[in-house]
Amino acid sequence: VQLQASGGGSVQAGGSLRLSCAASRRMFTNNGMGWFRQAPGKERELVAGISWNGGSTTYKDSVKGRFTISRDNAKNLVYLQMNSLTSEDTAVYYCAAARTAAAASQKALYNYWGQGTQVTVSS
Fold this sequence. Notes:
The protein has one helix and eleven strands, in the order βββαββββββββ. It is mainly beta. The strands form two sheets. Strands 2, 4, 5, 6, 9, 10 and 11 form a seven-stranded mixed beta sheet that branches. Strand 5 (45-50) and strand 6 form a beta hairpin. The relative contact order is 0.32. The mean pLDDT is 95.
């Protein structure tokens, strides 16, 4: 297993969750990383991306100011802090590694995927 996501759960609207993704060292060192989500009946979409050193990030417009992506290269971990959650954020969330060191916004640039973790926000 190369990527392992955790931290999902059920929360009321307005609440917070923090997702974590553990990556193998070989994959982690030079890769941009991202968090995606997929709601039932919808396409998988990028939520946030981060460059290899954390110096650059990119976000889906609807999560800007509410979600924060970060990484700890010493621990091979990527985080997604999610605040002010709404029912629209309900989805399965996936972490992914990009084949570029940049904060990639295109799904096609991600070539390694972890299993998903469910986030359910009730109103």
